[in-house]
Amino acid sequence: MSTTRNTNLLDPGFELTLRPMRYPDFYERYRDAIKNTWTVEEVDLHSDVADLAKLTPGEQHLIGRLVAFFATGDSIVANNLVLTLYRHINSPEARLYLSRQLFEEAVHVQFYLTLLDTYLPDPDDRAAAFAAVENIPSIREKAAFCFRWMDSVEKLERLETKADRRRFLLNLICFAACIEGLFFYGAFAYVYWFRSRGLLHGLATGTNWVFRDETMHMSFAFDVVDTVRKEEPDLFDDELGRQVADMLAEAVEAELQFARDLCGEGLPGMNTESMRAYLECVADQRLTRLGFAPVYGSENPFAFMELQGVQELTNFFERRPSAYQVAVEGSVDLDEDF
């Protein structure tokens, strides 16, 4: 095991030295994440049970599919984090943050487990939800997309060549921009659509905190990409841009297939075409953040998502007893896209 100082972030080895600190911004991200600690026990889902009984059959189908996706989505992210990101991002400061992120993914999994236990009291229904990646085509397609990008780097022991590093970058970008930054943001839109109608406040409360965590995860990953771009700019050529655009296009289509499953012929205020515009808008924002040209030109049709950042900023400071265990000092850095 090498403990020598490396030149670049993706150089092979296992850097252990924190002083002098080479990537202090990663360390600050770790410290900021600690301030955002929350527990599942702080989420009150009791009122949701009564709300579920008020939903139409179409809305109940949507919720069933949504919680089925939640059941395994963060577990897939956590697996990639351990098997790929922690292995190849050679910075002790970054690994501190990734360790914290792994804890947050575990809290998300616990939240969704509690959500399933509350929403689906029948054990057979819960078992079917956890088997969704095998039995529900629209969820299976999203999972297959994730696993393909995990498999693409599975056998990489060390990032020795330019091709190795490009493969790793594509995996990192996939999980940040497509999975956390698109699949989850699609799911959040359904949750906030219900909240905008005064329904499922417990689900929305837990999702607020997951939203904050996922935004920070995505921002950290993009910071890693920025660092690699500075250190190894030759990796960021037209071919990589095309690969990232194609990847996001595939992710948009997979999420649209999921939307067709959830929305059917359409629900009041929520349908496949609106979701298409929203996903395309988000995809363009991810491409722009990564330094690539946007491709869709769509605008966000969901006003309740435009308000999300403002509402959470207010709630964060006014609802501390039911929001976070540890108060946050200074400004709150939400996803500026919304």
Number of domains: 1
CATH topology: Ribonucleotide Reductase, subunit A
Our count of helices gives 14
Give me the secondary-structure category.
Answer: mainly alpha
How many strands in all? 0
Q: Would you identify the regions where 5 or more consecutive residues have pLDDT less than 50?
A: 310-338
Name the helicity range.
over 70%
> What is the CATH class name?
Mainly Alpha
Query: How far apart are the termini?
Result: 43 Å
**Mean of residue pLDDT?**
89
SSE pattern, N- to C-terminal: HHHHHHHHHHHHHH
Spatial extent as radius of gyration:
20 Å
Main β sheet profile: none
CATH superfamily: Ribonucleotide Reductase, subunit A
Note the beta-strand portion: under 5%
CATH architecture: Orthogonal Bundle
Anisotropy-based shape: globular
Report on the architecture of this protein.
The protein has 338 residues and is mostly helical. It has one domain: Ribonucleotide Reductase, subunit A. It is built from 14 helices and no strands. The protein has helices at 24-35, 46-54, 57-88, 92-119, 123-130, 132-135, 137-151, 162-196, 201-231, 238-263, 272-289, 303-306, 308-318, 320-323. Helix 3 packs antiparallel against helix 4 and helix 3 crosses helix 5 (123-130). It is globular, with a radius of gyration of 20 Å. Residues 310-338 have low confidence and may be disordered. Belongs to the ribonucleoside diphosphate reductase small chain family. GO terms for molecular function: metal ion binding; ribonucleoside-diphosphate reductase activity, thioredoxin disulfide as acceptor. Fe cation 2 binds at residues 105, 180, 214, 217. Its EC number is 1.17.4.1. It catalyses: a 2'-deoxyribonucleoside 5'-diphosphate + [thioredoxin]-disulfide + H2O = a ribonucleoside 5'-diphosphate + [thioredoxin]-dithiol.
